[in-house]
Amino acid sequence: MDPNNHVKMRKVLLCGLDFSGKTTLVKKFRIQPNETNEFFTSTAFMNLEKVKLPGKAETCLVYDMSGQGRHRASWAFFYPEVDAIFFVVDATDRARIDIARECLSDMARHPAIKGKRIPLVILSNKTDVDESVDANSMRSALQFERLKSENFDLEWWFIESNCKDASGIEAAFAKLEK
Fold first, then answer.
1. Under 8 Å between Cβ of 107 and 99
2. Which pairs count as long-range contacts for 94-102, CB under 8 Å and 24+ apart, including other chains?
3. 10-177: CATH topology
4. Which of 30, 48, 73, 173 is in Cβ range 3.0-4.6 Å of 40 for a Cys bridge?
């Protein structure tokens, strides 16, 4: 194998508050008929998995990060490495939407992410639950337009998703391909 003739594997940082459904979404996504995946490692603050992009031959490395408060600072270590960031927000957890907004704002202003031209996809998750916040209200609560103004280099996207059928995660990975 020629070391100069290899394809760079894309890397995605999957983050959000704890219990937002990050791991469930990525596991649902990767469990597709005739699709393969590899589980590399698990630590207290991260799962590392390789998944095959939908309908593509290429694979992607997913850093599935812990959303617990004590681990959130570790997200920044991966900003220079990744080709996209997927931030999952629990649309049923109204009490912590403000915390999610603060995390997104901190992320947008972080020096390690300034100047990066990568997709930042906000996945409003669990939208299939009756008590969930609707898309327009979630965009407003997260102050989506203000977040975008904090970092014009990022390609901001907002997608609804749910854990039952993993809708939205395929659309998020499609943003990585652009």
1. no
2. 94/133, 96/17, 97/133, 97/138, 97/141, 97/142, 98/141, 99/17, 100/16, 100/17, 100/20, 100/142, 101/141, 101/142, 101/143, 101/147
3. Rossmann fold (3.40.50)
4. 48
Q: What does the pLDDT read at residue 96?
A: 98
Considering the entire predicted model, what is its pTM? Answer: 0.89
Q: What is the DSSP string of 53-118?
A: PTTSS-EEEEEEE--SGGGGGGGGGGTTT-SEEEEEEETT-GGGHHHHHHHHHHHHH-TTTTT---
Q: Check: CB of residue 121 under 8 Å from CB of residue 87.
A: yes
Tell me the two tokens of residue 126. Answer: 């669990």
Question: From residue 144, how far is each of 26, 30, 101, 134, 169 by CA, in Å?
Answer: 24, 28, 9, 14, 19
- From CA 70, how far away is CA 143, in angstroms rounded? 24
CA neighbours within 13 Å on the CB side: how many for 72?
16
- The structural domains of the chain, with segments of one domain joined by +, span 10-177
- Token couple for 54: 């939908």
Looking at residue 138, what DSSP letter applies? Answer: H
Q: Is the pLDDT of residue 44 over 50?
A: yes
Q: What is the pLDDT of residues 51-105, one digit of tens each?
A: 777 667 778 899 999 999 999 999 999 999 999 999 999 999 999 999 999 999 9
Structure letter (DSSP) for residue 9: P
